[in-house]
Amino acid sequence: MSKIAATTILLVLLSPLQAIAAGDPAKGGKLYNRCSSCHAIIKDGEILVKGGITGPNLYGVVGRVAGTEYDYLNGSERLPIGMFTDDMIRAGQEGLVWTEENIAAYSQDPISFIQEYLDDDTARPNMSVKLRKGAEDIAAYLATFNAPGY
């Protein structure tokens, strides 16, 4: 095997590790205000990060099946949160599980992401805001709410 081929294989194998490390949670925390008009981060009724409730609760989003967060506990009352299009629910049913990488990609162009995932040019999510910068950082910040202790 040539050195070039070996190096190429090594870079391909390491590129997912680089993608995981690409986001900076501290920067993402500062940029999260872009998301908070629609999204809150709520754990067991405790509001960790204030925000709107038209988008889903982003607590524990990394590892969650898309289109499945429907409510949150506020005291003893379950309140509705997040509205999903049928296409987002379908993406979850077809196996879309949120990772840091696909949260960042989705945040950069939600409509194209869902259309590509579903292979359906008519598919639409509710989110249409495109985060041109900082999406990887925000995804890394959201992943901190999956960490032990949260």
Question: What proportion strand?
Answer: 5-15%
Distance between the termini: 47 Å
The parts where pLDDT drops under 50 for at least 5 residues are: 2-21
Give the strand order, joined by hyphens, for the main sheet: 1-2
Indicate the percent of residues in helices: 40-55%
Number of strands: 4
Q: Estimate the global geometry from the Cα principal axes.
A: globular
Count of discrete alpha- or pi-helical segments spanning 4 or more residues: 6
Mean pLDDT: 82
Query: What Rg, in angstroms, do the CA atoms define?
Result: 17 Å
Summed up, what is this model?
The protein has helices at residues 3-20, 25-31, 86-93, 100-108, 110-118, 135-143, and strands at residues 41-43, 46-49, 71-74, 77-80.
Task: Describe this entry's structure for a reader.
It is a single chain. A hairpin with a 2-residue loop joins strand 3 and strand 4. By secondary structure, the chain is an alpha+beta fold. The strands form two sheets. Strands 1-2 form a two-stranded antiparallel sheet. It has helices at 3-20, 25-31, 86-93, 100-108, 110-118, 135-143; strands at 41-43, 46-49, 71-74, 77-80. Mean pLDDT is 82; it is low at 2-21. Helix content is 40%, strand content 10%. The longest helix is centred in the first third of the chain and has 18 residues, at 3-20. It has six helices and four strands; from the N terminus they run ααββββαααα. The protein starts with a helix and ends in a 7-residue tail after the last helix. The radius of gyration is 17 Å and the shape is globular. Helix 2 crosses helix 6 (135-143), helix 4 (100-108) packs across helix 5 and helix 4 packs antiparallel against helix 6.
